[in-house]
Amino acid sequence: MPMITKRNLDKFFIYFILILTAVATLAPLMFLFVNSFKSNSEIVSSPVALPEHWTFQFIETAMESINYFKALGLTLIITAASVILLVIVSSLCAWVMVRCKTAVSTVLFMCFTAAMLIPFQSVMYPLLSVFDKLNMKNIYGLIFMYGGFGLSMSVFLYHGFFKSVPLSLEEAAILEGTNIFQMFFLVIFPLVKGTTVTVIILNTMWIWNDYLLPFLVIGNADGIKTLTLELYFAKLTSGQYGNPWELIFPSVFVSIIPIIILYIFLQKYIIKGVADGAVK
To answer: pTM for the whole thing?
Structure first.
């Protein structure tokens, strides 16, 4: 009986901690959702209360103000191109470093690992100066920058998993007559699906929500703004004194919907991919 009681208490404590964590995580999203249906006066007077009248008027107005569908399309293109570039380059790089066990590959992997500790702000101005001289302060340059900044973490994740892939699979594929690229993309790459999904989710969330790099690279170019830039400039040009909350809340809400949907569908792969890359 004491063992059953202790087990129940332990289970109760675990569930209690999990519930508190869930509430703390979902509270900001619920706050954002509720205030997306309120007027500015309602938000200021009672920010945590439910709206008096549920209406999509504020969401529709916000979507028009930030040119939602145009900015959404551009953000999707930049995010998708950057993530595809990251997945291809980082997976190939990690695989080569695992299979070519030399002093150079070891030092190179250590450089990739150390690069995760370098803050963007320390290389921001030199990088922008170089890209400006190369006439690459545009969407293509932005995609290239994202590919570079996300490379170190992606290589680190892939590297840990590739060490667990048997070399015999590659030898068998070579004996079947495949070339090196066919062997990698048809035989080896499908084995790291969990890690690939983790790399996709982590980099997608970062690129989708990033504000600083698009602001520095493409700035206030007419017709070329990501969702985060549209949010910023819509607030500046709203003409309202103070913070236009009835514009900010619904704009942020519609901007994060795509990334939330992606996370919900792929979340089960995150822990598995991270654990595989760290342990194996």
So the answer is: 0.83
